[in-house]
Design a protein that fits this description.
By secondary structure, chain A is α/β, with parallel strands linked by helices. Chain A has helices spanning about 5-20, 45-50, 60-70, 90-100, 100-105, 135, 150-165, 215-225, 245-255, 270-280, 300-310, 310-325, and strands spanning about 1-5, 25-30, 55, 75-80, 115-120, 145, 170-175, 180-185, 195-200, 205-210, 230-235, 235-240, 255-265, 290-295. Chain B contains twelve helices and eight strands. Chain B has helices spanning about 5-30, 45-50, 65-70, 75-85, 115-130, 150-160, 180-185, 190-195, 210-225, 255-260, 265-275, 280-305; strands spanning about 60, 105-110, 135-140, 165-170, 175, 180, 200-205, 230-235. Chain B has a six-stranded parallel β-sheet with strand order 2-1-3-4-8-7, sandwiched between helices. Chain B has a two-stranded antiparallel sheet with strand order 5-6. In chain B, helix 1 runs parallel beside helix 12 (about 280-305) and helix 2 packs across helix 9. The chains are: A alpha/beta, B alpha/beta. The interface of A and B includes residues 67 and 109 of A.
């Protein structure tokens, strides 16, 4: 075991891939000379050279489109977006091209590509830099979407994402880059589409992903102090989503709270909630609970931003109202 | 050029035109549905510019894609079957007229968001460069696409990275029903667009198949030598409306008639005879072969099965 940060985990996965496969290359804005907006690719240009570490113009549609074409021609591009909000500029390429091209070509063309993108609010970056569009991308068949919450999953998922023959969106919680955790020194991958039961419990199922997970850990501690036992689940993969693991847990506990850190409307948990209602409705001892951030453009002011975000007190309050726990 | 090459160019153009006419008929009969954009009038561009390409070169095009597919040598049977929505279609009946693909011939679509194919094409060129191969990519787009950001972004990207790509503008002077004058700053010519990105550019008569071929050959030679991208603008005209749904009321009969004077097929036929490059009998022979090919294609499409319902979830993920 080694204790490393989420940032170091992602770096480790990228370095492994660059070392193992000459067809792997990285491109994005300021990933070379600058070292990456969040310093993920710091030192990469010196080590791997400009052919494999490509600084791009500020042209998201062009370089994501070029990534798709190069993947279809047999390369393995890993593309960094400075923010998942910037995916909007290239949404046509991601959705109409990367996701659709295999289907509309009758399965002739594969797009083995990874798009890494920081996501989430909490750093006072205002409305345009704080959004969580992994939620939108989950709707698109042809894409896979993963969102790690800790260093071990970050490494396991970057490995499996790079190995995957499909376009994978790897959503990195911008607030978690510095989070430390134990990572196995033995090689492992994490299967895309498998949730992780972080702690087992009997009274309530708590589900989230990414930077929702540190909140759920605190919620579980609070509940534990009241004698309530929580089963905490990290989705890790948003598309495909592991409905089975969540439903199995809810059928055991009879209660569930689903946490989105994105805006509540249209969040990932809305979809999960429907699945739980359909598959486990008869097992529920009360209403299915859901917490998400306020449906507002992200405000810059810290007090307002914090108020808009999902939080431990909001979750505890919801559980108290819903289940009197 | 050998006689057989001249005749092959003629045959390609003839086949494209008659394929398109057959599409129109089968659309009217209800065998082809959805949006159908015909290439009639523009045949010289696909035939002339694709003839000089190698098998390992990539082609990426827009939704008016039947002509490029035929010029690339995709079989007319599976092409027509695709338009009929059949399982035996080039894209398994899942793509339709606007999304024709044949990866085995490096024919990478058929793309229906205006200008979206341009960045994609740069990716194929990037792969050739990365793997140190001298294959190139040709990307086709219309005058309408030049107002998309993707066009400008990719012209810049290709130029700074010296990508082996030929930007091929098929200027038919109308983006759907809107004329070039109405939507373009700086008048009708597009050549200065390329100059702005430090790229060599040529304007060619897109109704003259030999001129298109020669111009493309010169551009390809430069690109293959590693000097970076090039730009060709071919002026042309589509005889039909934008799609089958378009009666083309935004333009005059006079304008259409003037372009028909320059008809690529009729004039090339005349050129072959006048210059003694082929005989009427030669031309009749290749035309007949194309007619037979097309009849078989329609029969194949008609008799082919539809996709199975189980196919609906296939081909989403690798």
């Amino acid at each position: 075991m080694s204790e490393i940060t989420v940032r170091q985990s992602i770096q480790k996965g990228l370095v492994e891939a660059l070392d193992a496969d000459p067809n792997v290359f990285i491109m994005g804005e300021d990933i070379g000379d600058y070292g990456g907006a969040y310093a993920i690719t710091s030192g990469f240009l010196e080590k791997y050279g400009p052919e494999r570490i490509k600084d791009t113009p500020i042209s998201e549609a062009a370089f994501i489109g070029a990534g798709i074409g190069s993947a279809a021609a047999g390369l393995k591009p890993i593309i960094e977006l400075m923010s998942i909000s910037f995916s909007l500029v290239a949404f046509d390429q991601i959705v109409n091209m990367a996701a659709n091209i295999r289907y509309m070509s009758g399965g002739q063309i594969n797009v083995p590509m990874v798009i890494r993108a920081p996501t989430g609010a909490g750093m006072q970056l205002g409305a345009t830099h704080s959004q969580s569009f992994e939620t939108w991308l989950c709707e698109v068949p042809g894409l896979k979407v993963v969102a790690p919450s800790n260093p071990s999953d970050a490494l396991g998922l970057i490995r499996s994402s790079i190995k995957d023959p499909n376009p994978v969106i790897y959503a990195e919680s911008a607030g978690l880059y510095g989070l430390k955790g134990d990572v196995s020194d033995k090689y492992y991958e994490i299967e895309i589409g498998k949730a992780d039961v972080r702690t087992t419990g009997d009274d309530i199922t708590l589900v989230s992903y990414g930077h929702g997970m540190p909140m759920l850990e605190k919620v579980a501690e609070e509940l534990d102090s009241k004698g309530v036992s929580s089963e905490v689940i990290d989705l890790r993969s948003l598309s495909p989503m592991d409905y089975e693991t969540v439903n199995k847990s809810v059928q055991k506990t009879g209660r569930a709270l689903l946490l989105d850190t994105s805006r509540k409307t249209g969040g990932v948990m809305a979809e999960l909630a429907t699945s739980v209602q359909e598959s486990s409705g008869d097992y529920l001892d009360g209403p299915l609970l859901r917490v998400g951030s306020e449906d507002v453009p992200w405000p810059y002011n810290r007090k307002l931003e914090q108020h808009a975000m999902s939080s431990v007190p909001k979750i505890l309050k919801q559980i108290e109202i819903g289940y009197s726990l | 050029m050998e006689k057989i090459e001249y005749l092959d160019l003629y045959k390609k153009m003839y086949l494209i035109r008659h394929f398109e006419e057959s599409c129109g008929e089968n659309y009217s009969k209800g065998f082809i549905r959805g949006f159908l954009h015909l290439y009639i009038g523009e045949e010289a561009i696909a035939a002339g510019s694709i003839a000089p390409l190698r098998e390992d070169d990539y082609i990426v095009t827009h939704y008016r894609d039947h002509g490029h597919a035929i010029a690339r040598g995709l079989e007319t049977g599976p092409l027509m079957a695709e338009l009929f929505g059949k399982k035996t279609g080039v894209s398994g009946g899942k793509g339709g007229s606007m999304h024709l693909f044949d990866a085995s011939k490096n024919f990478m679509g058929g793309h229906a968001i205006v200008g979206a194919q341009i960045p994609l094409a740069a990716g194929f060129a990037l792969a050739s460069q990365y793997k140190k191969k001298d294959s190139i990519t040709v990307v086709y787009f219309g005058d309408g696409a030049t107002n998309q950001g993707t066009f400008h972004e990719t012209m810049n990207l290709a130029s700074i990275w010296k990508l082996p790509i030929l930007f091929f503008l098929e200027n038919n002077f109308y983006g759907m029903g809107t004329s070039v004058e109405k939507i373009r700053a700086n008048g009708k010519s597009f050549g200065n667009l390329a100059e702005n990105y430090g790229m060599p550019s040529t304007v060619v008569d897109g109704m003259d198949v030999l001129a298109v071929k020669e111009t493309t050959e010169e551009a390809i030679k430069k690109i293959r030598s590693g000097s970076g991208p090039a730009f060709i603008e071919a002026t042309t005209f589509r005889y039909q409306g934008h799609s089958m749904a378009d009666p083309a009321k935004y333009r005059t009969d006079k304008e259409l008639d003037e372009w028909k004077e320059k008809d690529p097929l009729i004039n090339f036929h005349k050129h072959l005879i006048d210059q003694g490059l082929a005989t009427e009998s030669d031309i009749e022979k290749v035309s007949k072969a194309a007619d037979d090919d097309l009849n078989k294609a329609v029969k194949f499409a008609t008799e082919s099965p539809e996709p199975d319902l189980d196919d609906i979830k296939n081909d989403i993920y690798a």
